[in-house]
From TrEMBL:
The chain crosses the membrane at residues 12-33, 122-144, 188-208, 220-239, 292-314, 321-344, 356-379, 391-414. Keywords: Membrane, Transmembrane, Transmembrane helix. The keyword Transmembrane applies. This is 4-amino-4-deoxy-L-arabinose transferase.
Amino acid sequence: MESVATAGGRPWLRGGDAVLAAGLVMVAVQLVWKAGLVNRTYFRQDDFMFLARGLENGFTWDYLMRVDYGHLMPGAFAIHWALGRLGGHNDVLAHVLTLGLQAAAGLALLRLLRVLFGPRPAILVPLGFALVTPMTISGLSWWAVVAETLPFQIALPMALASHVLCVRTGRLRHAVAAAAWTASGMVFFVKAPFIPILAFVLTVGWLGGWHGARRLLRVWALYLAVLVPYAVLFLHQLLTTVQLTRQTSPISLPSAEVAAKSVWTLLTGSLIPTSLGGPWRWQPIGEDYALAATPAPLMWASLAVAVAAVAVSVRLRRRAWLAWASLLGYFLLADVAPIMLGRIELLGPDLSGYELRYLSSTAVVVAIVIGLAFIPVAGEQRPWLRPAGPLRLAWAPLAAVVAVSSVWSVAAYADRPLGRNVKSYVETAEAALALVPAGTVVLDTYVPEKVAFPLFFYDYARHSKVVDPAARHHVTWTRRLAGPTTVPRMFDARGRLRPLRLTGTTIPAGAACRPVGATEVRFPIPDPPAGGEQVVQISYLNGEATTLEVRMGLARTSVPAGANLGITYATLDGGAPELALRTVGGGTTCVGEIRVGVPAADETAAAVPPQPVER
């Protein structure tokens, strides 16, 4: 085995190292494998909000330091800001960045494993786990998660590798590098403050014990110099940032029952099964995402295998118990605690318990723990408690089963449209806006839920924010129809623009139009609406422009009505058995057909573009 001095003293990338070459090939192969899935993804849900916010804001402190429901991620916001200006919904660039970050994460882990354990073939096992585990797949298919977690998956192993080199060589530059990598992780992900804790456990357990940790007072002081300002900044921003709900981030603890169920579900339904190649089955959330749906028998089988693996390692390997305890502690503090502080009340224990994006970055920690539990650290004295005996090769069939199961689970996740339909809708809508004449009035409705949930994203789920965030198209967006409008349009279910029609009831015109003056004229509604927001479409003939007051029950509004023949619209909240009209400020108008209802795209009218954009 290569000596520790050699491993830490010469560049880690050099020729003639078969293990290194194998690791590089593994990283490259997994990139080719995952590229097929990544290239089929598209922006989804809060991706559109983040891109729109980036285009709305300058590169300012307030923009970067916004805490989004517990997440302080100025680095990710910087990426969204730049991406929006480099082509808006540029999914090709997002895919290139994703694969580049994934490659860097794989190389960073390979470097740590080689520095920590030496260039022995055994390090390819935890590396292979991190490269194939389905734990990361759902996060890899969501751009917002990629921009937040993959930089952390680079920073964590790079920081720990620098820390190991610092302990072994005593050189302060390695400590500075470890602190710098930790700080870079904090720029992207709130779990980065746990890197120094992992470094401390690594030092106490495998790199010199308590005595060795006491010799590193300057190093711990350096970490504190990074952690303390971050903690102060995070807490300040957390308590002052106003969310989309017009409130600051809620901090509340769930009941003990809900908390226990959430922890148990996340552990036994997500973390353990995906560490062994699961979940084998997925629960779709729309067309482009899915939660783990581990079958109960396989969940219990995974738990049994995990217990057996832990028991074997603890029996054979010195301080293996500390490795597993570290993983459990990281899981509880870094994965579970943030969910408990607010999100659990919104999502519930079942939904949050099977949400793998909460665990995607934990795959790196699991890989490191697997190494610590089964592989001697380079230079470690007396690493084994007893000879392995017949168990020496037991890992091989288990690793093969995990690898095959992982490929199966990833293939099962990819067996869905992923981003195809959302991409078709968004690109069709963008094409429609580019084709209609400038000034076209477009009703700014919410996009379909498959694109962005209005319940979560409010105004950022409207078409103007999703398909025209940079206001490049010279259309007139309106949220409520009010006044004369020539052929207002709205989007159909495929993202095409069609003329708008009202689905509801019609008050037909008589043989001639009916004069309306300053005295209110009432029109009975044949099929009165039950309530909610209603649009009134009024056909009129005017000698000169006037203003109409429209009343339905207690709701009333005033809208202009131009000269000559035309149509004006009024939007009111409520329902009533009759509609009342009168002119305001003098004048008389002659009213023809009146329609009352809810706007919808007219499926019988020509669509722009004629066919959706298909990819």
